[in-house]
Amino acid sequence: xxxxxxxxxxxxxxKERLIALADTLxxxxxxxxxxxxxxxxxxxxxxxxxxxxxxxxxIILDVSLPRLARMFESRIQKQVEKEMDKAL
Length: 88
Fold this sequence. Notes:
The two termini are 20 Å apart. The longest helix has 15 residues. It is built from two helices and five strands. It has a single domain, classed as Kinase associated domain 1, KA1 (TATA-Binding Protein), CATH 3.30.310.80. The protein is of the alpha+beta class. The chain is globular, with a radius of gyration of 12 Å.
């Protein structure tokens, strides 16, 4: 599942807000470089992993959903987008 959200912050501020959102959700992020991270979280016994990229104008999440969660992909995507919009 790929999610892309525009932001009107500096790249550093957008990264800080993404880190704060990840912390709120219980997700751990490991930064590969200044703009790319990988991470995972467990929710109700289901582990979700993925990557994030923060550019000067957009945040891109690429999330791997387990097979059982894929039937709820559109609902999950809408909720993640809503949370990202609030954070940004």
